[in-house]
Amino acid sequence: MNEMSPSENQSHNVALVTGASSGIGYATAKALRAAGFDVIGTSRHATAKGPDGITMLACDVTDDASVANLVNDVLDATGRIDLLVNNAGVGLFGGAEESSLDQARMLFDVNVFGVIRMTNAVLPIMRRQEKGRIINLSSAHGFIPAPYFSLYSATKHAVEGYSQSLDHELRTLGIRVVLVEPAYTRTPFDANLIKPDRLLDAYESARADVAAAVEEAIRKGDTPEIVAGTIVKAATDTDPKPRYPAGKLARQVSVLRRFVPASAFDRSLRKMLRLPV
């Protein structure tokens, strides 16, 4: 890990990126550093390595004490936090009925309450600064249906509602909250998906078809660097938009969701996921 030096960080905007050891978080930390930010990345594991020049610190976003310790360490070293990128999250693939309530709670604890914990921890700092920006990683699954990602999609819909509402609360304080919404991205996301804790035969065939469609879509998807570029734009726009679709597919889906008749969109979605139309 790189050591933080207050003298080196005081003159630049300080960015804190959760889940920065791989995938979108890794690319984002690297891109923000190239854009002139002093970047601190986090990982659940203290030994995780980030991009060159990025300070990596351990943080479990499901643990109040871990989050508080992280933010205190960053503040002690840098004196400020100008940007928070809430990227840490987990995926769950399977029929909604195939997950127990305990598993659903675990998913929400990471993807929703983790965002809230991190946000609540940095807001007092940003309010004192009268300046700050929070970027929450959502997904195209946060504004469209996502069969066999039902619970994951529910967490992203929750993040969308939380973020848009919070942005209205904070604007007069000099703080903005924005969403970045990737579609399928070429990361280890599909390989790291959590499996349901009570698989049911009734869903096996359709689940397998959707899994194959998703695997193909990820293989053809955007690179993490494309998403990272969108995050940098969301972080640096003088007058930020409430949401930023990241990549060609995400932009297309966002437009289609608004303007295509619901029945046609429904058929298109099922066809893409190899479900009976």
Describe this structure as you would to a colleague.
- The chain is α/β, with parallel strands linked by helices.
- It has one domain: NAD(P)-binding Rossmann-like Domain (Rossmann fold, 3-Layer(aba) Sandwich), CATH 3.40.50.
- It is 48% helix and 13% strand.
- It has ten helices and seven strands.
- Strands 3-2-1-4-5-6-7 form a seven-stranded parallel sheet, sandwiched between helices.
- β1, α2 (23-34) and β2 form a beta-alpha-beta unit.
- The longest helix has 21 residues, at 150-170.
- The relative contact order is 0.14.
List the helices and strands in order.
HEHEEHEHHEHEHHEHH
The portion of residues assigned to helices is 40-55%
Strand content: 5-15%
Please give the largest β-sheet.
7 strands, parallel
Instruction: Supply the helix-strand structural class.
Output: alpha/beta
Oligomer: single chain
Counting DSSP E segments of at least 2 residues, the number of strands comes to 7
Domain tally: 1
* Architecture (CATH level 2) name: 3-Layer(aba) Sandwich
CA distance, first residue to last residue: 51 Å
Strand order of the largest sheet: 3-2-1-4-5-6-7
Assigned CATH class: Alpha Beta
- Considering the protein shown, what is the CATH homologous superfamily? NAD(P)-binding Rossmann-like Domain
What overall form do the CA principal axes indicate? globular
CATH topology: Rossmann fold
